């Protein structure tokens, strides 16, 4: 049997008691289920919420804080307790666990993204079970994952997981919020997540969760595009994750098996990198890079916007001003200004290099308009 990678996301709603605090019995059951899944011989990565839930009482709050600063302080108190509980429980199953706290900023730069990937890969190689959460206490407003659903999808892509299992307090995606409309029917299987479904799904969640079903459906769309099959639902007992993995889970399965994976460098470009400038191209260049899989050459460039360095990421726009993709540039904005619109021969004279004058190589390009790429 070939070893597979499985990412399991456990939301606050599946880790808490009636008062919103951390429920140790639930955590113990999850660990038993994770241990049984890992015993099948697969790599298992856990994305766990629960830091705020674990910390708010010791901080003096009577209920889960609503303010950002309150949540950040509660997470600072609770994350240590959460990880202590997990590592103690995993030890009982002879599993070494590790903590990774991520923020969006940790993945913005390519070297940081590669570093996180390398650390995760090394942990998995050494048979460790990584436990990931957002680093809530230092996350900056506007640059947070917000809920752990999207974080779990991004991690699934990063480790090229076969399956992302999102455990929550409801047994799947319903056509309407089942708390509001108990008659709503469930989707047992979805081949894909259309944008209309995301729009139609409510972000109303449990009293402790963030994002409701909407953020899960959005995360499922991303994970699917990155090559992971997805399950959203619930379960009980130590066999629940093995059951889900074997297709017998109580919830919604999304995507057929197996999905085409996306290279990590493309994932970084598409989902993490922050463009620092813009390049406008003519129709011929737009067609070449977005539909014909070619690299971008100086001759097709009509306009340069912003200041950027070589290796920065820029947005590329067509003559109508629409963003057609993002790419890592080989020239700074100053150098590019000197060769824009020139054919390669002319550009070579100016840059005084013998090399082909490629502005964005097709391997460093992500097309926003070619669906099959993502
Ligand atoms: N269409 C829907 N199908 C299923 N659940 C939904 C739907 N719309 C909203 N929900 C709500 O989403 C909640 C789960 O989201 P959330 O509380 O954020 O969980 P978690 O803490 O596990 O991330 C469910 O309790 C349910 O009330
Ligand atoms: N990172 C936060 C969890 C954020 C959140 O509420 O996520 P979720 O319960 O997955 O919707 C924590 O550890 O408490």
UniProtKB/TrEMBL annotation:
It catalyses: L-glutamate + ATP = L-glutamyl 5-phosphate + ADP. Keywords: Amino-acid biosynthesis, ATP-binding, Cytoplasm, Kinase, Nucleotide-binding, Proline biosynthesis, Transferase. Pfam families: AA_kinase, PUA. One of its GO terms (cellular component) is cytosol. Transmembrane segments: none annotated. It comes from the Bacteria. Residues 277-360 form the PUA domain. Its EC number is 2.7.2.11. Pathway: Amino-acid biosynthesis; L-proline biosynthesis; L-glutamate 5-semialdehyde from L-glutamate: step 1/2. InterPro entries: AceGlu_kinase-like_sf, Asp/Glu/Uridylate_kinase, G5K_ProB, Glu/AcGlu_kinase, Glu_5kinase, Glu_5kinase/COase_Synthase, Glutamate_5-kinase_CS, PUA. Substrate binds at residues 49, 136, 148. ATP binds at residues 9, 168-169, 210-216. The keyword Amino-acid biosynthesis applies. Signal peptide: none annotated. Catalyzes the transfer of a phosphate group to glutamate to form L-glutamate 5-phosphate. NCBIfam families: proB. This is Glutamate 5-kinase. It comes from Planococcus massiliensis.
């Amino acid at each position: 049997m070939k070893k597979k990678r499985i990412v399991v996301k456990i939301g606050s709603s599946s880790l808490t008691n009636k008062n919103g605090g951390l429920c140790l019995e639930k955590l113990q059951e999850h660990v038993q289920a994770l241990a049984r899944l890992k015993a099948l011989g697969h790599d298992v990565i856990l994305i766990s919420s629960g830091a705020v839930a674990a910390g708010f009482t010791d901080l003096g709050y009577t209920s889960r804080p609503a303010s950002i600063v309150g949540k950040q302080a509660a997470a600072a108190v609770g994350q240590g307790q959460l990880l202590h509980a997990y590592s103690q429980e995993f030890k009982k199953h002879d599993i070494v666990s590790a903590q990774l706290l991520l923020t969006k900023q940790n993945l913005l730069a390519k070297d940081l993204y590669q570093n996180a990937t390398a650390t995760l890969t090394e942990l998995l190689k050494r048979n460790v079970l990584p436990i990931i959460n957002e680093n809530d206490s230092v996350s900056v407003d506007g640059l947070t994952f917000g809920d752990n659903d999207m974080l779990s999808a991004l991690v699934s892509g990063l480790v090229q997981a076969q399956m992302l299992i999102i455990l929550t307090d409801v047994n799947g995606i319903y056509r309407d919020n089942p708390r509001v409309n108990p008659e709503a029917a469930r989707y047992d299987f979805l081949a894909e997540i259309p944008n209309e479904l995301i729009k139609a799904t409510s972000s109303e969640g449990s009293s402790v969760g963030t994002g409701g079903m909407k953020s899960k459906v959005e995360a499922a769309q991303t994970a699917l595009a990155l090559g992971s099959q997805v399950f959203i639902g619930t379960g009980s007992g130590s066999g629940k994750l093995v059951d889900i993995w074997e297709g017998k889970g109580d919830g919604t399965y999304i995507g057929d098996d197996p999905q085409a994976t996306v290279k990590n460098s493309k994932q970084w470009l598409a989902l993490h990198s922050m463009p620092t400038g813009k390049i406008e191209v003519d129709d011929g260049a737009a067609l070449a890079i977005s539909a014909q899989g070619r690299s971008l050459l100086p001759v097709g460039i009509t306009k340069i916007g912003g200041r950027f360095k070589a290796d920065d990421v820029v947005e590329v726009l067509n003559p109508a001003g629409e963003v057609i993709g993002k790419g890592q540039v080989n020239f700074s904005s100053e150098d590019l200004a000197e060769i824009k619109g020139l054919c390669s021969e002319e550009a070579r004279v100016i840059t005084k290099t013998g090399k082909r004058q490629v502005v964005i190589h097709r391997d460093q390009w992500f097309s926003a308009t070619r669906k099959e790429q993502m």
